[in-house]
Amino acid sequence: MSYLKFDKNLMINLEQSLTKEMLRTNQSGAYHCTTIVGCNTRKQHGLLVIPIPEMDDNSHVLLSSSSGMGMTSNPCCLRVLQPTTVVQ
Fold first, then answer.
1. Of residues 51 and 81, which shows the higher confidence score?
2. Side-chain half-sphere of 15: how many Cα atoms within 13 Å?
3. Which residues are CB-neighbours of 35 under 8 A, at least 6 positions away?
4. CA-to-CA distance for 52 and 77, rounded, in angstroms?
5. Where are the domains of the chain?
6. Cβ distance 36 to 11 under 8 Å?
7. What pLDDT score was predicted for residue 83?
8. Which of 35, 28, 27 lies closest to 65 in space, CA to CA?
9. Position 21 pLDDT exceeds 70
């Protein structure tokens, strides 16, 4: 698993941190994209964005944010503790 490390001064300065974005993709065309402070500032930002070729040629945000996550007894598995926002 990979981790990102940022300077605390960058993280508390929204003027700087909102312009820094991270993108993680997989081979099927799905991706995760947001700012480094977790603010979705673009229409394409989300925790789970996937293409659905059966519907159209666009990517769809299936999970835009999560209000709380916790670890299970298996550190490789995350479980959602609170409802998340689903955009259709």
1. 51
2. 0
3. 17, 18, 19, 20, 21, 22, 41, 45
4. 25
5. 20-85
6. yes
7. 43
8. 35
9. yes
Task: Say yes or no to pLDDT of 78 above 60.
Answer: no
Query: pTM of this prediction?
Result: 0.62
Sort strands 46-51 and 59-63 into parallel, antiparallel or unpaired.
antiparallel
- Strand, coil or helix: 17: helix
CA 68 – CA 38 distance, rounded (Å): 13
Contact indicator for 32, 24 with CB cutoff of 8 Å: yes
Quick: pLDDT tens for 26-59. 998 999 999 888 888 888 899 899 999 888 988 8
28-56: burial string, b at 16+ Cβ within 10 Å, e else: eeebebbbbbeebeeeebbbebeeeeeee
